[in-house]
Amino acid sequence: SVAENGNITMEIMYTVHVFVKSLLFVLLWSNCEGRESELNYVTCGSLVKLLNTRHNVRLHSHDVKYGSGSGQQSVTGVENADDANSYWQIRGKPNRPCQRGAAIRCGQAIRITHMKTGRNLHTHHFSSPLSNNQEVSAFGENGEGDDLDVWAVQCDGVHWERDEAVRFKHVGTDVFLSVTGEQYGHPIRGQREVHGMSSPSQHNWWRSMEGVFIQPSQEPLRHDEL
After folding, report:
1. 203: which DSSP letter?
2. How many Cβ atoms are within 10 Å of 95's Cβ, its own excluded?
3. How far apart are CA 167 and CA 64, in angstroms?
4. Burial of 127 from C-beta contacts in 10 A (0-12 / 13-18 / 19+)
5. How far apart are CA 74 and CA 117, in angstroms?
6. pLDDT tens per residue, range 199-213
7. Residue 36 to residue 93: CA distance in whole angstroms
8. In which domain of life is the source organism classified (predicted)?
């Protein structure tokens, strides 16, 4: 009868409706899951604070020059978690920018640029003021310095995970970004010396903390260099 046919049609439509809703939910859920996993990584362009896990200080810089060695802008470690001078941007190598929002790979060479002064984390063959390890400074102008601004991220997996401890090995001189606890006096009293050490140890583990993590772009990737 017409009534029966109508009921069957309604049932089919209802079943299709439920199926489509379920499918949309699964698609949305899997997309959220994918985005969530991507957000577990430190990404290109992110602004982060980096905590030395052994000494509980954050990598820091400010427009105060070293009184010895290179005379360049000093880099220190501070206990205060709220200091705005402890934000650094994760960037690609000179002339090889990384894809904004792309997860940083373990082993990838990066620059770490101080947000407030636009100078890059840098090391070279000068002695550090307190421990006579290798001096670490902030160098360059407006984010551009030289080849001694490049560090390789050392981590265990495929990408740099936000909650894991990693090491930064300087590409030019093979030292690790380190803190061993020496404290400065005036004018940066209580801040710790940051320096380069030739061997991996408990003093050179760093973890990303507070920050603005750039999400992966939803636009298709463009490979201009290919």
Report:
1. G
2. 5
3. 26
4. middle
5. 11
6. 999 999 999 999 998
7. 27
8. Eukaryota
